[in-house]
Structures are given as C-alpha cells and as structure tokens.
Write a structure and sequence with these properties.
- With 934 residues, the protein is α+β, with helices and mostly antiparallel strands.
- The chain has 5 domains: 194 residues, Beta Polymerase, domain 2 (2-Layer Sandwich), CATH 3.30.460.10; 146 residues, Nucleotidyltransferases  domain 2 (Four Helix Bundle (Hemerythrin (Met), subunit A)), CATH 1.20.120; 116 residues, Hydrophobic Seed Protein, CATH 1.10.110.30; 100 residues, Alpha-Beta Plaits (2-Layer Sandwich), CATH 3.30.70.260; 106 residues, 2-Layer Sandwich (Alpha-Beta Plaits).
- An 8-stranded antiparallel β-sheet has the order 9-10-12-11-15-16-14-13, with helices on both faces. A 4-stranded mixed β-sheet has the order 3-2-1-4, with helices on both faces. Strands 5-6-7-8 form a 4-stranded mixed β-sheet.
- The longest helix is centred in the first third of the chain and has 30 residues.
- The protein starts with 19 loop residues before the first helix and ends with a helix.
Length: 934
C-alpha cells in the first residue's frame, strides 16, 4: 500500500529555515566582519551552505515521514527564500549600504517561474527578478552582482533578470514565456511597493482582454512539449515534469486558470464553477503525488533528474512504500498509481478546456482524425434518431443531465453514435459519463443491446481505437469490462514493452484497423491475408482480450483464454467463434516465438508449428494478430526482418496444413524470390547473377528480405573484387534504432563466438543475429547492434570501430578473452530475469536444440557460444533475439561427429554450463569448466 496521503496542514519547515534565526545569525556575521568584504562573503557562504545542507536533509526526512510532496516542495522553497533574503541582507546592509536612497536607488527581488509558485524540488533552478523603478544604477548593479556571487558560490543554478517595471511590461506583451514568468512572480525582499506596482500594472495593461491569445499560446506550447517528450501519457519511462500528465501539465492548467479567471488558488476555481469541490481536491491530490515523486527522485539520484527510468523505478517504489502483490511487483504497483494520476491530470485538462470554450477563450477544436460531416449553424442541434443526445458545436453531447440515469445503456450508446457518425465527444458528456460510472452494474454488463453496441464499436470500420480510447479515458471501458479495468494503467517492469497494458491493447486495435485498410505496406503478409479471413470480428475481439490477464500469478495467455470463454458469449459470439477467440488468446505468442527463435528450414520446426495451428484459417488469424501485437509494442519493434520471418513461417507451414497442396508451393516461391532478385540487379550480367544465386541455399531466398539480399550481393561482390576473404559492412537503420553489421568470412565452428566477442569488446550490444552459410563454405552473418548515438556521423564512426574490432578478431590480431575481461562492465543490474536452459531433441530431426533465455548483457552471446564450443559442440545455426532486457538465444547443435546429444549426463552438463554464464564465472575460470567440475 502506498504511503502517499492527501496533504494535511503541515508546518513548512523548522524555524531556523524560515529565515528568522538565520537572519539574526547573518546580521551577527555581518557585524563581526564589518569592513572586510571578502571575509564577510566567505563566512556568509559557509553559513548558508550549512543551512542548505541541513534544510535539504530535514526536508527529505519529513518527506519520508509524512509523504506530503507539496509540503516538501514548499519547505524547499521557504529554505531558498531564507537564503536569498540573507544574501540581500548582506549585499544591501553590509556591502553596499545607502543611508538616504534616492528614488532610483530602490530594488525589489521577486521569485519568478517555478520558484515563484512557492514550490521547488531539490534540484530545481532558482529564477529571480531584480525589479527596478527606472533604469539600472550603480548601486542596483552592485547589490544584484553581490547577491548573485553569493548564490553562485553556494552552487545554486540561478536564472536571473534585471528589469524596470516598464521593461517587464513591454517584454511580457511580446513574449509569452516572460508573461508566464511574471504571472507567477512572488515578492521576496526589498521595495514591496515596487513589486505591487508591477502586479497592478501587469494585470491591467497585459492580462486584461488577452485571455484567448494566452490560452492559445500555452496550449500550442504544451503540444510542442508533448511532441518532443512523447505524446502518450503511458510511456513506461515517463518524465515527471514534462511528460503528458506530469507536473508541467498541471502548471499549464493553473497558469491558464489564473490568467483567465484571475484567481490565486485552485479552490477559487470552485467558486467560479470551473471545478467541483471533488475536482479541486483531485487537482491537489495529483499535485501532491507528482511533487512527492519528483522530490524523491531528486533526493534519490542526487541531481535534477525528472525521468522515471527503469534503473530508479524499483528504488522509488520502495521509498514510497509500495509492496508486492501476487502477480504484480512493487514497482509495477507504483507505476500503475503514477499512470492513474497522469490520467486524472488529463481529465482535469479536459474539464478546464470545456469551461474555457464556454467563455469563448479557447477555439472549439476540429474533429481530429475524423470526418466533419455536420456544420451546425446554431450551437445545439437535436439528433433525429434519439432525444438523449445532441450536437453541440459539432460534437456529441447529452441532451440533459439525466440522459444516462434514464437509460444506463446510453453510456455505451453515446460512443456507438460517435463512431457511426464520426463525431467527437463533448467534454461535458465525457465528464458526465465519468460521474455516472456506478450506473454500469451487472444488469448493464449482461444487457444484450449494450453488448451488441459494444461489439460494433470494437469491430468498427471507422476508428475503433479512437472511440475505445475515449471510453477508456471516461472509465466506461473498464467499468463495462472489469477485466479490462484491472489492466488500466498497468505497466510491466521490462524494457520490451513501451506502453501500459491498456494502451498496448488499444494500439493493437489501431494497428489491426490499419491492416484492414491496407494503408501501410510495412504490415507485410497481414495486409494480404486480412481480406481472406472468414470472420474479421474475431480478430478485433481477440486483440482486445489477448493481454487482459496480465498482472496475475498464472500464465496470462491461459488465464486470458479463460476470460475470453466467459466474455465472448456475452458479446453475442457463437460457441465456435468463442472457442476460436480463446485459442487465439492462448496461442498469441507462439508464432512470434517460432519465427524468431527456430530454424525455419528445419522440417520438424514446421511440423511442430502446424500441429499447434491445426488449420489454415487459424494460421491466417494468428499471423495477423502476431503482426498487430508486435507492431503495437512500441516504435521500431516491428521491422521488415520480422515481417519476412512471419511470411516464411506461414508459407513453409501452409503445405503441411493443406495436405501437400499450396497456393504458392516452396519451389515456386524460391524461384519467384530469385526472379525478383534478378530483376532488381539489372546492372549485373545474367551469368554473374546466376553464379551468385547458386551460392545460396533455398532457405536463404525465403528468409531474407529483398533489400538485404541486394545489400549482401553487392557486399560479397565488392569483397571479392578487392581480393579479400574477410570483410565487414555497416548500415544504419534509424527507424529501428539499430546498426546492422554484415560479416563475410570462411565458415568455421567458432565464427559466431568470435564475432559476438569482438562486438562486445567494442562496446556493442547485439540484439539480433541471422546466420547464413553459402554453398562454397562462406558464412554471411548479419548482426543487429543497438544504436548508441543520435547523429548518423557519430554512429558511423562507432560502427567503423566495431568493424575493425571484428576483422582483427577474425584474423587473430587480438586475443578476445583478455580484451573481454577488461571491457565488460560490472555493477548492479536494474532487471532480474531467471535464466532457463532447455535441451530438446524433438524440435529438430537432425540437431539438438538448445534454447537459452535470461538477462541480456554486453558479451552474453560471446559467453554462450564460447561455452558451447568448449563443450565440443558444433553450432549448425543460431537464432538470436532480444525482448527488452530478456535475451532468447536458440542454438541448433551436434557433437563433433554430427550426432544429436542424447545422453542425460551430457545434457545436464550443457544446462549447468550455460546457467553458469548468467551467474557469472569465478575469476579466470570458464563457465564450461565450472559446470563440468560440478
């Protein structure tokens, strides 16, 4: 259970840091060092440093004790106030005293920006304004400079400006950033009448009558910020300050409210009828939680870190008091709370937007992503087919406050109407739906009409993802499907999934809709198959449910199938359709696993997969679902390589399922692929192409995509023209975030191990690998390594160093074991993955298949392949895949005589040796030797 509580009345901080005792001490120091300016400044800096250290330590202690994030931020702001007023006391009273100041020798110091709100994180910048009545004077310049030197000596990051009142007003009119900064200005010390004059004139001369332009500017600024940081609020490594649903969104809300409604606190928005009392309390709870997270994060990392990266999430969860529950780690429960708060911030944004539209301070948005089919002349138009809903500024709204109470099915129907008529939903309707959630009870969930409407929403040919997302934001989706409600805002603590579970499921629906519309050729075979399936609805339902059992102690695929068998009859699906959906949910990972980690040219692989899918229709459905599932994981996860693997698996399995008959048999597909290759290499002679084609075995032509085949051909040709036997080639793939390294060398058993070791020694992390052998004894290996630099020229230079390392290792110029011992990083690992090793003789007719999964790390592939070599095993083929932090490497091996490994003792030795790789070998001792000795 989280220790974060709704804030109560707290003292801001202990008395010494409220400035009372500190001010007295500073005066004593000033008196003691009078006339010795350098000594005075040094003594003051020493005392203020101590105050900052003690104040931060006390603030952290109190934060851990009471869990009040807002209180911590206010305590730190009060501490900063005391430091700045002390610096002013030294500068104005002791260093540059003026007995009889003129009108121009006056100054006010104000906190602006985030500091002006009176709340700061431990690593926040200190933004201050030196406010002057007229132009700068020698005295004002001296005081400001003396204060800044003290603050800089304290190590504070100070943002400062020196302006007259007139300059502040002029610049505020021209620059919205400065206008926002002054909007939040707070008096600290100095001539208070000067600050009050700025406040009065700013309100009269800048703010009055400019609400609409300020709102437009702030909303545009927010959109640009979210575009840079990632539009989704459900990114699994969110930015607490600048991410969607973070503190900056709350600040933007308050800036707008303060500017438009001329209020100073959120509670005043209740009196203005913008927020209800509960919504105002929600604002405070969200703010308190986010400040608590941000302050803890700064204290934990010791720097102004605002990104909740994986390596701090677990520590943050423990600091905040979260505990594990069955099926969910403490860190996953913490992050779920975080995402629910981010969702609440989004709801508050929608509420304020609706209120601003009512005041005409914010333009009514267009129907983004939808067809605008109505252009109403008047504001409210009643729909012909129902009296419960109306058109309100071209958006669907309820006719009155009782629309959902009269008929609770309207909570589903309103989204159905929005989908059918391509209408956006009015924020008022979304608010009312959120407040009416208790109306969705067991009777509504079992209502035939409600379920019919829901199924039509899910399987719509318009924009099902958009409408389902609105249902989820309003809470209707999770209430109507409580099983879905359990995965709302649920994150999985791994590097593979980029989004929360509910966000992933909704994106899957969006990808499936894209596949059906055939607008993206990258979807590969799925585009071709979509139009041939007998029942498209089953795909949409299965994708909505495939991860719905995440977060449970048992296998989510098996539990999900059980949920599907319960829900599908409710949706109106027949027993046969229900069983198909349940099967798709239970087997939704199988095709991806087989395609990426098995030898698709091995007959046994295809026979085993065929026994799972059983018929062609199921394989079509599974291919489409697998494509959508992988693509919706996150940017760069889906690529042409994976598309080609799925295509190959599908067409290799098709003849088995059809009794030997295939729409496109294997031989014809190989011939077609070779013909496509010949056509693309039009600058080569027919004889040259024929010679090259003969160098590759048939599986190569089916497994590798055309662009890679062409790259391979030109690379091999250039290498031979140069008279070289070993060569490498690097290519950037920015969309996937990887760099592809192609290696050509004489084939031998330890080749993959040497390549992997050289890459690791050069600091490259291998995330994928495909291995091909030519008919004339060459190995053509394609290694995907994780990109390290954003700039292409930097990454190409790095790739050059990796190429050089690989070539030196292959020619024997360097000894890998010594290099690896020096290069591999040591230290705490963020993730833990229990290693597993499977040795199986039924997955292949000719080879023993060794499947290894565990925590990925630099040099892992080298360690595994080197261990297999030391065990006198010959690696016939290897299939390397990385799913975030989990590596899944599959090796097809034989003994040195070419036979399978059948002895139980030998198999146990292999398992122990490979497990020992993950545990880490003793110093100067190989994993294989340790395992053999054990």
């Amino acid at each position: 259970m989280s220790t974060i509580r709704t804030p109560r009345a707290h003292r801001v901080i202990g008395e010494p840091f409220e400035g009372l005792m500190l001010k007295a001490e500073i005066r004593e120091i000033g008196a003691a060092h009078k006339g010795r300016d350098i000594d005075l400044r040094n003594a003051v800096v020493l005392r203020l440093k101590k105050a900052l250290q003690e104040g931060h330590a006390e603030a952290e202690r109190l934060l851990k004790e009471d869990g009040c994030g807002r209180c911590c931020a206010m305590r730190l702001s009060a501490l900063q106030d005391a430091v700045i007023t002390s610096a002013h006391e030294v500068a104005a009273t002791f260093l540059y005293p003026v007995d009889n100041p003129s009108r121009s020798e006056r100054m006010a110091v104000a906190a602006v920006g985030g500091y002006g709100r009176g709340m700061m994180a431990p690593g926040s910048d200190t933004d201050i304004l030196f406010l002057l009545p007229y132009k700068q004077t020698a005295w004002g310049e001296s005081v400001a400079e003396a204060m800044l030197y003290i603050l800089w000596d304290l190590g504070l990051k100070v943002g400062h400006a020196t302006r007259s009142v007139e300059e502040c007003l002029r610049q505020a009119r021209a620059d919205f950033t400065i206008r926002t900064s002054i909007l939040e200005a707070r008096y600290l010390v100095g001539e208070k009448a000067l600050f009050e004059d700025l406040e009065k004139r700013f309100d009269k001369e800048v703010v009055e009558g400019t609400g609409a332009e300020f709102v437009a500017a702030k909303m545009a600024e927010r959109e640009e910020r979210l575009r840079r940081s990632g539009q989704s609020r459900y990114l699994v490594e969110p930015n607490v300050k600048d991410g969607k649903g973070g503190l900056r969104d709350l600040h933007t809300l308050f800036w707008i409210a303060k500017y438009v409604y001329r209020v100073q606190t959120t509670s005043q928005l209740v009196a203005k009828a913008v927020f209800t009392r509960e919504e105002a309390r929600l604002f405070t709870r969200c703010e308190d939680f986010l400040w608590s997270v941000r302050c803890h994060l700064h204290f934990l990392t010791g720097r102004p870190e605002d990104r909740l990266s994986f390596d701090v999430q677990r520590d943050m969860a423990q600091r905040l008091g979260y505990t594990e529950h069955p099926g969910q780690k403490d860190v996953e429960r913490f992050m779920k709370h975080y995402f629910l708060v981010a969702k609440d911030v989004g709801d508050l944004t929608a509420i304020l937007s609706a209120a601003l539209e009512e005041r005409h301070e914010k333009p009514v948005p267009g129907l983004k992503g939808m067809v605008e089919r109505f252009r109403a002349g008047s504001r409210r138009i009643t729909l012909k087919e129902t009296t419960d809903f109306i058109l309100d500024h071209d958006r669907l709204n309820v006719a009155d406050e009782d629309a959902f109470r009269r008929d609770p099915v309207n909570l589903i129907r309103i989204f159905h109407v929005a989908d059918k008529r391509n209408l956006a939903l009015h924020p008022d309707a979304m608010q009312l739906a959120a407040r009416s959630l208790p109306l969705i009870d067991a009777a509504v969930r079992e209502n035939a009409e409600a379920n019919r409407l829901f199924l039509e929403i899910v399987t719509s040919k318009n924009a099902p993802e958009t409408v389902l997302r609105r249902m989820n934001e309003a809470g209707v989706l999770g209430r109507f499907l409580p099983e879905f409600g359990k995965v709302v805002a649920m994150m999985q603590f791994n590097m593979y999934h980029h989004y929360t579970v509910d966000e992933h499921l909704l994106r899957c629906i969006g990808v499936l809709s894209e596949i059906e519309r055939k607008v993206n050729p990258e979807n590969g075979l799925a585009n071709d198959l979509m139009g041939t399936v007998k029942n498209r609805n089953l795909l949409y339902v299965a994708l909505l449910l495939h991860d719905i059992a995440k977060g449970r102690p048992e296998d989510h695929s098996v539990a999900g199938a059980r949920i599907a068998r319960r829900l599908c009859p409710r949706f109106g699906l027949s027993p046969v359709e229900t069983e198909t959906v349940a099967w798709l949910v239970e087997q939704h990972l199988v095709m991806s696993q087989v395609a990426q980690s098995r030898d698709l040219s091995d007959r046994k692989t295809i026979e085993n997969f065929a026994s799972v899918v059983q018929n062609l229709e199921r394989m079509k459905l599974l291919t489409i679902i697998t494509t959508a599932d992988i693509k919706a994981v996150g940017p760069g996860t889906w690529n042409g390589w994976k598309a080609q693997l799925l295509r190959t698996l599908y067409y290799e399995t098709e003849p088995v399922l059809t009794g030997g008959f295939s729409e496109v048999d294997r031989g014809k597909r190989v011939t077609a692929a070779q013909g496509q290759f010949r056509h693309a290499l039009s600058d080569w002679t027919d004889e040259k192409v024929a010679t090259y084609v003969a160098r590759h075995y048939p599986p190569y032509w089916l497994r590798v995509d055309l662009d890679t085949k062409l790259r391979h051909a030109r690379f091999v040709d250039a290498t031979e023209q140069a008279g070289r036997s070993i060569a490498t080639h690097a290519a950037l793939e920015p969309g996937r975030g990887i760099t592809t390294l192609t290696v050509l060398a004489p084939d031998h058993p330890k080749l993959l191990s040497i390549i992997a070791g050289a890459c690791a020694a050069a600091g490259a992390n291998i995330v994928d690998a495909h291995i091909s052998t030519t008919t004339d004894g060459l190995a053509l290996d394609t290694i995907a390594i994780r990109r390290a630099f954003d700039r292409d020229d930097d990454e190409l230079r790095r790739a050059g160093r990796i190429q050089e390392a690989v070539e030196q290792a292959l020619t024997g110029e360097v000894r890998l074991p010594e290099v690896m011992a020096r290069k591999l990083p040591k230290g705490r690992r963020t993730f833990t993955v229990e290693p597993e090793v499977t040795v199986n003789n039924s997955w292949s007719n000719r080879h023993t298949v060794v499947e290894v999964s565990g925590l990925d790390r630099p040099g892992l592939l080298f360690a595994l392949t080197n261990t297999l070599s030391r065990l006198n095993l010959n690696i016939a083929s290897a299939h390397v895949a990385t799913f975030g932090e989990r590596a899944v490497d599959v090796f097809y091996v034989t003994d040195l005589m070419g036979a399978k490994i059948t002895g139980a003792a030998r198999q146990s030795t292999i398992r122990r040796a490979l497990i020992a790789v993950f545990e880490g070998p003793a110093e100067d001792e190989e994993p294989a030797r340790r395992a053999a000795r054990a």
